[in-house]
Amino acid sequence: MRKKVTVVGSGFVGSTTAQRIVDAELADVVIVDILEGVPAGKALDMLESAPITRTDARATGISTQAGDYSATAGSDIVVITAGFPRKPGMSRDELLKANYDIVKAVVVQIAGHSPECILIAVTNPLDAMAQTAYKVSGFPKNRVIGMAGVLDSARMSAFIAAELGVSVENVHSFVLGGHGDDMVPLPRYSTVAGVPITELLAKERIDAIVDRTRKGGAEIVNLLKTGSAYYAPSAAVFEMVEAILKDKKKILPCAAYLEGEYGIKGLFVGVPVKLGARGIEQVIQIKLVPEEDAALQKSAASVRELIGVLGF
Prior knowledge:
The chain is α/β, with parallel strands linked by helices. It is built from nine helices and 14 strands. A six-stranded parallel β-sheet has the order 3-2-1-4-5-6, sandwiched between helices. Strand 5, helix 4 (126-137) and strand 6 (144-146) form a beta-alpha-beta unit.
């Protein structure tokens, strides 16, 4: 029997995530949305593409307008993308109150129907929504994960590869901290075929890449005018889902609930973790120089400020 993944939200991020999972025959997918007809229509479209993409994984779509989440029961992983998108000029922080109620209501239903699932929060502001999912679900910390660092690191890697004219397969980047303007790209730990970029690029070029990474989401929002990124975010979710369902023990930067690691306690912050069948199986602690640690603490403080608004 194939694994089961529920994707909450049939917008661009949710539907593209579902398509990636189905096309890879990784799991059967249930797409849910409060909208009537949309999730079913998108799932049917994916089903009709299956003979061409050669996948027997199935997508189904349901509307939760009546509050019925029974079709999601027994999910192995639930990806939460539902919420309002960021608009031009809007910071992730401004989305806080708008999306809190949505995520809270979703998690109540999901926890009731799939009490053993792993939750992956994608809705922005990411770290605060992961904290919401953790508090509302009552799940152990290893089964609530925020998708942030994989996306931010991918953006940084794309910029490095373009700058140096090398294959993206040779580039590995690390971005820690909250998923916002205070995120912490780490050039010392970002490499090209094992060589730190600090040995390959001038400081001003590295600084420019770090700045562009921090503003990566906003850059796309400003270009699209009426939406936000979805190809890269959905690819990031897929990598996480694959690592969990295949028990790959993959080291990826994700938003995890910290209890003293990196000097941070009681907060979801992006750090390297080992992802496997049990979700977050280990928080990987790397050595930071004082400047990097100060930046991470500043980023955590920004997340804590948001959490304070929610009263957690």
